[in-house]
Amino acid sequence: MHVYGDNRLDRYDITGIVLYFCLVVAVGILSMCRSKRHTVSGYFLANKESSWYMIGASVFASNIGTEHFIGLAGSGAAVGISVGAFEINGLVVLQLLAWVFLPVYIASKAYTLPEYMKKRFGGSRIRIYLACMSLTLYIFTKISVALYAGILFVDQSLQWNRWLAILLLLGMTAVSSMTGGLKAAMYTEVLQAISSLLGAGLIFVLAFIKIGGYKYLLRQYPLASSNVTYSVDGKECNLPLPDAFVMLREPADPNLPWVGFLLGQTTVSIWYWAADQMMVQRMLSAKSLSHAKGGALVAGYFKFAFLFVMIIPGMIGRVLWPDEVACANPDVCEEVCGNQPAAAPTLSTPNW
Question: Measured between alpha carbons, how far is 271 from 93 in angstroms, rounded to an integer?
Fold first, then answer.
């Protein structure tokens, strides 16, 4: 596949990737050796010894993945800051988990959500149903999307074989999780949270230096149209939205109507943040309820920061490279990303 632009890595990039890979492996091995995984509590809940900062970083890293790096920047380039409403919504619902749901979960002395459902309602059918439903949703809505976004990034930066990269990612994740339990996963997630925030923050700073400041972005984003007009359903899609800097929009808005978002997304967010095994398990591993609440606050601050360090650079990318990012011709996206969507906002991330 031909690579658009100069995305080749130099020796400094390769050195950084190798060092980070070695650091992740070292942290994973160290945590596996130190984790008390011979008991149910030790394996599933890290022996209930997690501090607030580890919980906050782990919850944040569990939520943020490659699909966010590409999706948030791409959505920012396409429709503006409205996609940040999902991060704010998650921030609020996360506090609902810590202050309302979690005390009930802790009182039940359950290790997993399916176990809690069995204790709450009795019988095994609802426990099996929830476990099967959760696994199905993870495979088709999270793991597959995260893998595709990650492979898209790896393909552009490293030019590796996609199937080989998928097998390596899945294999390393499976070995670390199954042999080390929750504590091993949380240690590596803390490292990933720090590296994600530092990397995204660096992009944020470099983007503003390159564009000349926020005022320049306000002036130039409404003008960031490609020279080639591409039409979808009879509408020109290379024109920036007039309400790009408005988060919650009119009830009839096709992108993010505030009524539909608050009533619809909040319900989904309660499931994701307050009734999802991956999130609840990390909160249950806290030393105490106070540490769990502190972890929820830390994760909320991280998510709020991510609103700026990923969405805004995507918008800046549209200003700097309008012909490639601002609803480019699908042939360009086929050349870069290997698919042909109606628009190509995801190009804003590889450009950085």
Answer: 10
pLDDT classification of 234: cutoffs 50, 70, 90: very low
Cα–Cα distance list, 188 to 57, 180, 193, 312 (Å) = 10, 11, 9, 27
Q: What is each CA distance from 45 to 41, 100, 279, in whole angstroms?
A: 5, 20, 12
Cα–Cα distance measured from residue 73 to residue 165, given in angstroms and rounded to the nearest whole number? 23
pLDDT band at 352 (very low <50, low <70, confident <90, very high): low
Count Cβ atoms within 10 A of the Cβ of residue 325 and give its class: 0-12 exposed, 13-18 middle, 19 or more buried.
buried
Percentage of the chain lying above the pLDDT 70 cut: 84
Q: What is the token pair recorded at 126?
A: 């609802």
Residues 6+ apart with CB under 8 A from 106: 284, 289
And the tokens for 174? 């499976």
C-alpha 177/C-alpha 181 separation (Å) is 5
pLDDT band at 335 (very low <50, low <70, confident <90, very high): low
Give the angle 201-202-203 at the CA atoms, nearest 5°.
90
Q: Which residue has the tokens 């990039």?
A: 13
Look at residue 104 in the predicted model and tell me its pLDDT.
92
Beta-bridged to residue 157, according to DSSP, are: none
Alpha-carbon distance 286 to 47, whole Å? 9
Return the structure tokens found at 98: 């810590």
Q: Is this structure's pTM higher than 0.90?
A: no
CA distance 63 to 55: 12
Q: What is the DSSP letter of 235?
A: E
Q: What share of the chain is helix, strand, coil (3-state, %, to 5)?
A: 75, 0, 20
Cα–Cα distance, 310 to 302 (Å, whole number): 12
CA 205 to chain CA mean position, Å: 20
Give the phi and the psi of residue 257 in degrees, each rounded to 5.
-70, 135
Query: In whole angstroms, what is the distance from residue 247 CA to residue 84 CA?
Result: 7
